Amino acid sequence: MVLVFSASANASPQVRREVERAVHKGVVVLPVRIEDVLPSKSLEYFLSTQHWLDAFPAPREPHYARLCNYLRSILRADASAVPQAAQARAPEAAGAEHALEVLQFNEAELRRLELELARFVGPFAKQLVKRAAARTSCIEELVQNLGEEIESEGDRRQFIKTCQQIKHSAH
Fold first, then answer.
1. Looking at the whole model, is its pTM more than 0.90?
2. Domain range for residue 29?
């Protein structure tokens, strides 16, 4: 997650919640300061151990180039963490595996689940649905796994009930 950090972001309760959620879910947060602002106490806890990039003073283009290089290095490191056996798999086997994933869940169902989950967890819903869909084999299990991402028991029950209604209306 790239956090474009400014005085406005620093004061935003929504940004604080998104950063807190990202850290809780193990998502890497890369703060990019576009103004010379230090994080508030509530953000300092979550961002104190992070590597920061500064994108000021103007012009910003050299700072953006450095950010892109840094992100490329992170993505390369993630790709190199894939087990050798998975990298050595035959292309046709990988294609068949991808086809099974696509057939496993209907795109419209996944999108509806994502939108419903976003009501409770915010913009991380898309990533959470993608991860959970890769680990589950049926829609009921997927809904249960996504429900576990919602902290409030009442909200979790509401999410599961709504998702069950979505599932039944689709059939």
1. no
2. 2-80
